[in-house]
Structure formats: C-alpha cells, structure tokens
Amino acid sequence: MDRIETPHAGDDHAVDDDVVSLLMRQHGDIRNLFDEVERTDGDERRDAFRRLVRLLAVHETAEEEVVHPFARRNLPGGEEVVEDRLAEERAAKETLSALDDMDTDDPKFLPRLLELRRDVQEHARSEERYEFTHIRRGADAAALASMAKGVKAAEAMAPTRPHPGVQSAAANMALGPVAAVMDRTRDAVRAAMGKDGGKQG
After folding, report:
1. How far is 148 from 137, CA to CA, in rounded Å?
2. Which residue among 9, 23, 48, 72 is least crowded, i.e. fewest CB within 10 A of its CB?
3. Where are the domains of the chain?
C-alpha cells in the first residue's frame, strides 16, 4: 500500500500539489542526465554535466529546505533519518566537487562519475523509502501543497534540457558557481513557502 508511483522523468504533468510526485520526477530527470553525460563526449558532455551539477545542487537544496524539516518534526526517528540523509549528501557533494574541478574529457572523469551515480542512486532510494513514503502517508493536503510550492520554486532554477539559441537568465545562471546556485535556490524556496518549511498543521 505504500508503493510510490514514479512519474516519468521530465513529465511536466506530475501532480503539481504533490511534493512526493515532484521529487520523484526530479529523481528520474537526474537518472536521465547521468545517462546523457555517460553516452556523450566533448561539448555535449560538458553541457549535460553542467545541467546535472545544477539539478543536483537545486534538488538537494530543495530537500534540505522542504523535506528534511518536515521529516525531523513528523517522522518516527526523524532526526536520525535526516542525519543519515545529510551524511549521504555530504559524501556525494565531495565527489561532485572533485568532478567539477576535472575536464569532462579527462580519462578519470567517467569512473568518478559512475561512483557519484552509485552514491546518488543509493541516496535517492533511501529518501524514497525513509522519507517520501512517510510524507505521503502523514502529511495533510495543505502541507503537501506548501512543500510542492517550494520544490517548484527550486525546479525553476534548474533547466534539465538545453534550449539552443535561448539566452534565458536561468540558462545563464547554470554557468555560475554551485554555491551561488544553492544560495539563490534557498532564497526562492523560502520565499515561495513563506519560510514555513512545510510545517504540518
């Protein structure tokens, strides 16, 4: 009964007021971007990797601002669950940072990317099992909608597909430092949610 339906990656019709559907869709987009980085090379690989870095940064920031505060307050053993997820995120960020300093054509790049992919996938499975199922079961409609608002604000900061010839502010921001992207995402999430962090009730 706790099975979570996974929206198709890139499905713009995922339920807009269901934070779990939105986050599961992002997990699908992340998997697709890993595939794209692996199968391309040269400028295509560099572009796909920049989009992957950006989506990972935005996704993790949204979870830190939206999912983890709710989990701490409302899940059984929430504090421990969140600390475990944060430890996984820190490890992934270290690998991501090392990759970010490498050229995507470096022979060492792909093995490190595969290491990152393994860590990110394990982290996503843990989120789905220990956080998402409990959120869907325990959050009321208002809390789900409030959290979804924050995730959508974050998602707007991370285009997952290239738009040739279009110089949007969001596309230009993809070239900025990851830390700056995370800061802007955090501000956008907090503004969208009225700084309530998905508080239940």
Report:
1. 15
2. 72
3. 19-193
